[in-house]
Design a protein that fits this description.
Blueprint lengths: L1 H65 L2 H4 L2 H24 L3 H7 L3 H7 L2 H4 L7 H15 L1
Helix pairs in contact: 1-3, 3-7, 4-5
């Protein structure tokens, strides 16, 4: 009888431990899958657009500063395209901030949110006569035009 009780208890303990282990592994896999899905969602909804707008701005500056771009286009066109590229970049940053994605970037992308907060495109234009709310207005105009 004692042997049957011992066998029954060890089977019961084994089943409980196995169930807890299986539930823990299942939960960990679900959280990992959820985290990957969140990363993908943030990337598709915000980061790709931000990267594209920053690359566009960089190419505008590079074209005008290093490749003679100003010599082949009129001033109105160069000003308009530069403002649009800048506006898109500022709008991308603004969307990250306004949609509360910035704090999630640290969680899902190993400190990216902190990096972007410390290295904002917007801050590069301080002190040159292009005032903060002029930059905000430009960003929000571009966001409005995209809708």
């Amino acid at each position: 009888m004692a042997m049957d009780l011992t066998t029954l208890l060890s089977a019961l303990i084994g089943a409980v431990v196995g169930s807890i282990g299986a539930a823990s592994v299942s939960h960990a896999l679900q959280q990992r899958s959820g985290s990957q899905q969140k990363r993908r969602s943030i990337s598709y909804s915000y980061l790709y657009q931000c990267q594209d707008s920053l690359e566009s701005l960089w190419y505008r500056f590079d074209n005008f500063a290093n490749r003679g771009g100003r010599a082949v286009v009129d001033e109105e066109y160069s000003d308009l395209t530069m403002l649009y590229s800048l506006g898109r970049s500022l709008a991308s940053e603004r969307l990250l901030i306004m949609s509360d994605v910035m704090p999630q970037l640290d969680e899902h992308f190993n400190g990216l949110g902190t990096y972007l907060r410390l290295n904002r495109v917007d801050s590069l234009f301080q002190g040159i006569g292009f005032h903060r709310y002029d930059r905000v207005t430009l960003a929000e105009l571009v966001m409005t035009e995209k809708k």
